[in-house]
From TrEMBL:
The keyword GTP-binding does not apply. It holds the Pfam family RDD. Keywords: Cell membrane, Membrane, Transmembrane, Transmembrane helix. It is a multi-pass membrane protein. Coiled coil: none annotated. It comes from Leucobacter coleopterorum. This is RDD family protein. The chain crosses the membrane at residues 12-38, 50-76, 109-131, 143-165. Its main location: membrane. It is found in: Cell membrane. Residues 10-178 form the RDD domain. InterPro entries: Pra-immunoreactive, RDD. The lineage of its organism: Bacteria, Bacillati, Actinomycetota, Actinomycetes, Micrococcales.
Amino acid sequence: MTSSVPVLRPKFGVRLIALLLDYAVILGWMLVLAISTLVPYSITGEFFDWLALGTAGAQFLGFLLLVLPVGIYLYVGEASTRQATVGKRVLGLRVVDAMNENRPSRLRIVIRTIVKLLPWEIAHFVVWNIVANAANGEFEFPLWLMVTAVAANLIPFVYIAFVAFQKDRRGPHDLVAGTRVVVSTRQKLDG
């Protein structure tokens, strides 16, 4: 069944504002994490030593506390009946299946979320390896780590460039998942 809602390509600025609104939500979660870190510090006078878990353990804990909750936020919003995160909802956008403009499958939303968060996780990998090296007094970092650090900083710009210049405003996460973001006139149709 094809959607009866007209589908329009969103402008780049609208997509960017939606992204910034979603980052405000994410920053809210990061504030909660910061406060939950400061409370034990105010009692003990010491911060938890993430590196005591090893580089992989610290990265995994960071994934559990930050990346996974953000991924759940993105997934729940885009897999919902509104097909949108808070930022997209505010601006009248929604995620659709690129082939038929219907609601995407949950698997497509999972893939979209993983690809969207991949640069973030690569950056965390780099940071934890740099911190671990520095904690061991090693300030000359291996070439692979420096190349990965540069890539981690460039990939988000590539994602944004795709959305800015690709015909349907589809980022790599949309292209891989088979989705796209559209302007929804559902608001006008519903009310």
